């Protein structure tokens, strides 16, 4: 896999739908984008998905639809020692929309793909969709295509959560991609520590003011908004593990040095206190 922008999905001249199986203790962890729409089902493993301006936890049974040209990366939790297993489909949304234009019966799918700018998350994925995703690797080409149509049709009718509120207008340049990748790599590996604006601006070879503009234009949020969201999502993962770890320790492990600031930011983003979130995870109401 290439480590530069743009990321190219390998495919032959005779394929319009690519099925990819990823099984690894460490997933491909470079921020990347590609022109294909990506549908990914998580069979096993836990971690975080970074996509455009948003961060989402992922776990077994989750399904994500990532729009064309949305910078993203899946970062699995290697501390758990669990192999990540994902099944992904890649296809050109524009090609499918053009092909389906001649079939009025497929109008709902065409509309769905037209409106896919924000992507979507199903957590957990309905059982029938999960079974479909797990069957793709063993299907012959014709059955794969008909199953693909069925999958898209079902996706038009399920309840879903948008992945992002920010739609990338175009493919970002190689230099921009290199900068964003370096920023994401540094932050995802160091978010539990103090990170200053000067440090992250130096990493991007920019002045603090220029870096702030650069980051905001490409993520629709400030750098520190992004950093806080990453820390809170990590805290949610720790709370979901249910090991009765003190809230103060979770705050520290997530990069917060003040428990009052942690509680305030957690409530702003999740609409509830960390303790309530933990209890809701215990009883399965969240």
Automatic annotation (TrEMBL):
Keywords, ordered alphabetically: DNA-binding, Transcription, Transcription regulation
Domain of life assignment: Bacteria
Coiled coil: none
Record-annotated HTH araC/xylS-type domain positions: 181-280
GO molecular function, one term: DNA-binding transcription factor activity
Pfam families cross-referenced by the UniProt entry: AraC_binding, HTH_18
Protein name, per record: HTH araC/xylS-type domain-containing protein
Organism: Sediminicola luteus
